[in-house]
Amino acid sequence: MKRFICLALASASFTALSTGAFAQPAAASSDDAQLAEIVVTARRRAESLQTVPQTVNAVTGATLEKLNIRQFDEVQSVVPGLTLTNGTNGFSTAATIRGAPFEAESGAQPTVAFYLNDATIQSNFAFQSMFDVGQIEVLRGPQGTLRGQSAPSGSITLTTRRPTLGEFGGYGNLTVTDQRARNLNGAINAPIIRDVLGLRLAAIIDDNRGNGVGSINSSIQPSSKSWAVRPSLRFEPNDSITVDLMYQHLERKVLYFDQVASVSLFDPALSATQPIIDPDDRVGITNNIFSRFKQKQDIFTANAEYRFSGQRLSYVGSFTELDLRQFGSQDAANAFPTADVAQDTHSHSKQSTNELRLSSDDRLFGFLDYTVGGYAQDFNPPTDLVNVTPITLFGQLVQVAETPIAVRTKTHERSIFGNVTLHLGDATELSGGLRKLWYRDSNSVNISGFPVLDDKKGKGEATLYNVSLSHRFTSDFMAYANTGSAFRPGPFVVGVFRPLTPALERHVDLANEKSKSYELGFKSTFFDKRVLVNAAAFHQDFNNFIYRGPLVYYVGLNQLGPSVSSINFGNSVDAKIDGVDIDASWQVMQGLNLSATFSYAKSKIKNDVVACNDLNGDGVPDVLTQAPTLDQLQAATGAQAVSECPSSGSLLYTPKWGLSVQGEYARPVSDDMDAYLRGLFTYRPKTNGDPANAYDTVDGFGLLNLYAGVRSGNGAWEISLFAKNVFNTGKVLTASSTLVATNVQALQPPTFSSVAAETINSSYLNVTTTAPREIGLNVRYAFGSR
């Protein structure tokens, strides 16, 4: 039945698109056949996307609804070159743009900054069920002279729908799928004092299978359950004052296993144990739930404006609080199936931001716009965990040693900024901005009551700039050039719980990062605004890029003695990135539109030193399929405890380019009802991955989503049937370089009073795969102001 529905959707879509393209003549030039104008706030004011001299991808709330995008990481399907990592552990959420990677465990500021209603937020708050969203904007290139936080590769802004003051209304939206997903969200908009005070109340209940990975040794099913409520208030007492307040509370519970596959499927020469697990099986091997976490979020944002004498005084503030409790197994190889070997982690973070700025509402002297302001951010994410170490005797578990660890980190940032734009005639614009920032931080690590890192403090300052020149040669063609800089303070990478050697310290206490970017581009429309083509080429140089490399083994020390430990070390490396971004849209005729987005980025380390696995000492990272023994590791690393290698490799082992194509054909079937068919196709090329990983080469593949439905002519209701990953394409996206293993401390004969580190290997690799085909039904009803 599923196959029949998918084939029917595919046949109907291609038939309709063919009929639409060839059976009807192209529409005559008219407003109805033109592409709709997209308004963005990339430069902190509302303006047409085609007038902004930088690369911006806008995903409207209508697009999110049309493509049934329920989770934030699905946005990457419509924005090539954007990689969104929704860490199943609740911590590891991250975004990558233009080939500059970021992983939350690095401890650094993100390469991509996140904003909610114009206020800075941590990425964890974005990577949740989405509901009642007005627009998402993806800005590419260095940010920081106009927005709060410096980010070298871009920013993502999310805007929730604001209350309307003149009309009562609302909507309800229900999605159910064959993958046990249930999503119900909606909103009510109510004027309290017409045209003065309005309230909007939005909410969501979301229940799905999370990462969809079960276990061959457990009957527990993966799940992700969340709910949220969001009241918003808008106050406009007169034409000069606007105040928007928003509060959101969200709770989420997740149960999941890590997915594995038999190593023999990747390398037939290696032995395998039963059962053989294929990546398409989507299972793990642990008996107990591999991980579970509970998350509570509270977000408050405030936006206020006072307009006077052609000027605008604006305030943006936020307060966020995140409480996260994770319980994760430390027996990845399932060596002790009846024991409870798990790490308990509790993090409770708070962040506040405040920004005040003054800007011109009307041009000064007829040709000048300006913005000046100040920004403050305070972040405090204390984390407590209990690390566990299995102790064995003749291969049998006899005890689990518990080590309490307390990590304390605080960061403070203050900055002032200014931007001036000169309008040199009607066609030329010159803009420049500066931000001066000061930061300070403190870090401490306490293990079993003893300080390992005793309140290490850091502080510094940086100056950022941005310059942009654009010229409109005609009303339909604009060319531009811009350059800018970015800064990220070097973090202290938490995770090496032992006294540091000089080599360890180089890869734990990282240097400050600085970068410069250059971009050339154009924005154009053709054929009476029925065709749009935007393109840009960019180059970026990094000094001390904060790079978190592949997994590296080092000699750890704990209360039981030396051990084989591993971590993705930090590295400060010089690097460069080159790439292009292209957007194209075509309103073929009334009711039929097509669009495509292409992004390419190539990154390279400039022959710098990184932490590596180098057991033979030849300076080339080893291809390891399992963890080394303690003797091997100590012999290779000596007194430094970790090996180092020169590198000229890539910063990012994901595809260098990506392509996304969308199309929709709609036509009336009655006086008040339209039928439509739409499709979304994404393509990922072949990726060779990390040269030190023998298993992470991924062949190129494409994914197709199809949607068919009917809707009222005025948009009040809509019913649609959809299939995501129509052909159930199954591909391995990532594979670990070494076997899934459990690290233990073994009691040593004859006295059994000492221990030695040992590793118990499985015959499986950790993998991630494409999501399976999902078939669903979506019903939406709206009324009034909606």
List the helices and strands and how they pair.
Elements: H1 2-22, E1 39-40, E2 47-48, E3 56-60, H2 61-66, E4 82-85, E5 94-97, E6 112-116, E7 119-121, E8 133-140, E9 154-160, E10 169-177, E11 182-193, E12 197-208, E13 214-215, E14 223-238, E15 241-256, E16 260-262, E17 283-284, E18 291-308, E19 311-329, E20 342-360, E21 368-380, E22 383-393, E23 396-424, E24 428-447, E25 450-474, E26 477-488, H3 502-506, E27 513-526, E28 531-548, E29 552-558, E30 561-567, E31 570-589, E32 592-605, E33 608-612, H4 630-637, E34 643-647, E35 657-670, E36 673-684, E37 701-712, E38 717-724, E39 732-735, E40 741-748, E41 754-761, E42 764-769, E43 774-784
Parallel strand pairs: 6-9, 13-17, 22-40
Antiparallel strand pairs: 1-2, 3-8, 4-5, 6-7, 8-9, 10-11, 10-43, 11-12, 12-14, 14-15, 15-18, 16-42, 18-19, 19-20, 20-21, 20-22, 21-23, 22-23, 23-24, 24-25, 25-26, 26-27, 27-28, 28-31, 29-30, 31-32, 32-35, 33-34, 35-36, 36-37, 37-38, 38-43, 39-42, 40-41
Brief summary:
By secondary structure, this protein is mainly beta.
Q: Can you tell me about this structure?
A:
This protein is mostly beta strands. The protein has one domain: Maltoporin, Chain A (Beta Barrel), CATH 2.40.170.20. Helices cover 5% and strands 57% of the residues. The strands form eight sheets. It has a 25-stranded mixed beta sheet that branches.
CATH class: Mainly Beta
User: What is the first-to-last residue Cα distance?
Assistant: 36 Å
Largest sheet: 25 strands, mixed
Oligomer: single chain
Note poorly predicted spans.
Answer: 1-31
- Could you give me the name of the CATH homologous superfamily? TonB-dependent receptor, beta-barrel domain
Dominant shape? globular
